[in-house]
Amino acid sequence: MKGIALIGFMGSGKSTVGPILAEELELAFVDLDDVAAGLASATVGEIFAADGEAGWRRWESLALRKVVERNPVVLACGGGVVLKPENRDTLRREFLTIYLKTSEAVLVGRLKNASGRPLLEVADQEQAVARLLEERRDIYEASAHAILSTDGKKPRTVAAEAAALAAKVGKSGPEM
Ligand code: S3P
User: Which residues of the chain fall below pLDDT 50?
Assistant: First the structure.
């Protein structure tokens, strides 16, 4: 069985849905941000401060390679993991990759006052969310085997829908 990777923008619910889904599928849950921070022995904020976004992306890519060795797991990915083509290839090859798609309005509301996300620690957070979403929307869609819309749904509902997708793929193979 392949692992399940949840991708999507910051605030789309990957780290909330992931543990519920993992329990349902009886798989370990892994948060890629935690693995990357663990490898670097530093917080996400510290890594960004010391080495910038490029430095963070290196730790994140290394973390993804390490997680593959532990597959199958349910993996909540950081929102920017899909920016590197090598990571997109890994996600599509090694996981059933599900994009948790959340509207801009919901994301903006959820991310308000959120801390620990260096890309959003800017004067105009709403504008940053809009710009990053614009840059990434197509990449999320192209990276995923399946898209789950999350607006108006409880995390438990999203997890149940993801589990149903996993069951379907288990029967018919990963080509979706
Ligand atoms: C990022 C998302 C964050 C974290 C880092 C960068 C991004 O993870 O990896 O702050 O580029 O979207 P979450 O999506 O879990 O917040």
Answer: none
From 30, 47, 117, 136, the mutation candidate for ligand 1 (largest count of ligand atoms within 8 A of CB) is 117
Candidates 32, 20, 19, 8; CA nearest to 103 is 8
Distance CA 118, CA 41 (A): 17
Give the three-class secondary structure for 84.
coil
- 101-138, pLDDT tens digit by residue? 999 999 999 999 778 899 999 999 999 999 999 999 99
Query: Is the CB of 80 inside a 6 Å radius of any atom of ligand 1?
Result: yes
CA distances from 97 to 74, 117, 127, 176 (A): 10, 23, 28, 10
Contact predicate 18/109, CB 8 Å: no
- Assign 29 to helix, strand or coil: strand
Phi, psi of 165 (to 5 degrees): -60, -40
Beta bridge partner(s), residue 31 = 76
pTM given for the model: 0.96
Q: How far is the CA of 172 from the centre of ligand 1 (A)?
A: 32
